[in-house]
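Minutes, project check-in
Item: structure for the 423-residue chain
Input as provided by the requester:
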Amino acid sequence: MAEIKPFQSLRFTDKAGSIQELVCPPYDIISEEQRQGYLQQNANNIIRLELPKGEQPYAAAGATLQEWLDKGILKKDDKPGIYIYEEEFSINGIHAKVKGCIVRVKLEEFSKGIVLPHEETLSKAKEDRLNLMKATHCNFSQIYSLYMDEEHRIISRLDRLSQGKPVTELTDGQGVTHRLWIVTDEEEIRAVCRDFADKKLYIADGHHRYETALNYRNDCHENGIGDGGENDVMMMLVDMEHPGLVVLPTHRLVRDLAVFDEAKLLDDCKAYFDITEEEDLQSAEDKLGQLYKAGKKAFAFYSGGNGYKLMVLKDENVLAELLPDKSKASQGLDVTVLHTLVLEKIFGIDADNMAKQINLTYTRLLEEAVESVRNGKAQCAFLLNPTRVTEIRDVAAAGEKMPQKSTYFYPKLVTGLVMNQLF
């Protein structure tokens, strides 16, 4: 099963400045304005490597990496280790911590059933990441993956190994505190590696980067370069039942339809949904939450004003009829219900249209979804419940993938604490 290894991480030295000024969120959620802000605060911010800009951005990233190594801004740790990483945060009135370990993981084809994806990817994003890897031969951010451990032995071991003071601690602009411990004891490392010998890994966040790592490995082999490091990728591994795991919903915004007839839409939806008029938009999250706990498939449809329409699926068996080739896990997803019965069947927005985001965009913020409708950028919004972690596991185990933007793990892993130089 999963083969994990310690590694000698590249990390920022004191020459680079305060670690608080050197890290950043994942590249794909950073605007250009935010990018410039990070660089104005500290020119050594990891964003220069993770999201390079200019006429030859990838070559620039490669040159910057070498410059930082030469100047001692980045330095490789003296010994191989595993890196225990914890995030402490508050959201929706809940205070939580989530902890896992950052390691090298041997790349495996999805067909082997050892590393399992759950979400579709976009080719443009993979091309960008591949060009960056070819220029730098480095992972600057971790792929976020989950594993099953019914007895929770691994997290117990990690808790024991991280009882002392962390080597790095910082609180980011979102109020999330990040802590890092390094384990270099060889026996402890061997024990952790053994713990994963019978585990499968379920990708939670980072599908593009994993597929890119596979393509990068293959390219290295075809061109006779590398020293074996290209066969691995850096991952953060977290217990699937960790109490600190939080998955947020990703809401759907419909825009730019040539014809948008709300009355006809709702009338057509009545074939599949019980629809009730709700007067107070502020109640949407609570109503959806109650239905979520009851195991119902439900959405809030918003098209303006102070109220919304609550849509509850009448019969879940309809998905089995429409998608007979899909597993029950896929058929039962909220996003599958919405995409199949409403967006595709009634709106006529097919999968290719969704992938290209022609008439469909996404946001995790309910307030942004509402404002997009009110300011006319979107014709309507569908507010969703989050995908359950168990649903992610079951869809991946069935060898299937969810639609894009089906999950949003919170908080995101910070970029810049540890880096994996492949060779």
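Outcome recorded: The mean pLDDT is 95.
No further action items on this chain.
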